[in-house]
Amino acid sequence: MYSPQLPLASGRVPSSSPSSSFSFDAQHADPGGLEAALLQIMHDHHHTSLRLRDQAERAKKDAIQNAARVSDLLVDAVNSGVQESFINEKRIEREIRALAVTIARFMKQTNQWLTTTHAINTAIKEIGDFENWMKTMEFDCKSITAAIQNIHQA
């Protein structure tokens, strides 16, 4: 890669510490060395930014995987409750159907008992009516017998 020649600065770069003996003289510096240093800095920056991008991408993928794992766990937790509720609902529905059949059978049996007790009550009433009729007939027969005896004796 060819980069254009940068103008060289003249003068000395002040050193950052008084004890440092390093000084830069731009007129005596190797121009190719500066370009190589800048290229090296760009190259290092490029690799650092690629590495940071890769790390960020891996962190993003890990975060997505963790979020997916968490959401799966939450869905499983909710689904287990829903599944348990569904099973309980089905069991309750079966019990309701069984109770409805039992209730229908008891209603039929109760109606039969009511019919039977009504028939018994009717029979008892008829027996009572017959007994009352018999008493009336007995009284009438006694009255007729007494009347015949009175006529026969007179």
Low-confidence stretches: 6-26
Bulk shape: rod-shaped
Summing up helix and strand content along with how strands pair, one would put the structural category as mainly alpha
Largest sheet: none
What fraction, in percent, of the residue positions are helical? over 70%
Number of helical regions: 1
Write down the Rg: 59 Å
Strand content: under 5%
Mean pLDDT: 83
Let me know the number of strands: 0
Determine the N-to-C terminus distance. Answer: 169 Å
Helix and strand sequence: H
Descriptive report:
With 154 residues, the protein is an all-alpha fold. 80% of the residues lie in helices and 0% in strands. It contains one helix and no strands. Mean pLDDT is 83; it is low at 6-26.
Record the SSE blueprint.
Layout: H1 31-153
Brief write-up:
By secondary structure, this protein is an all-alpha fold. It has 1 helix and no strands.
Task: List the keywords.
154 residues; mainly alpha; 80% helix; rod-shaped
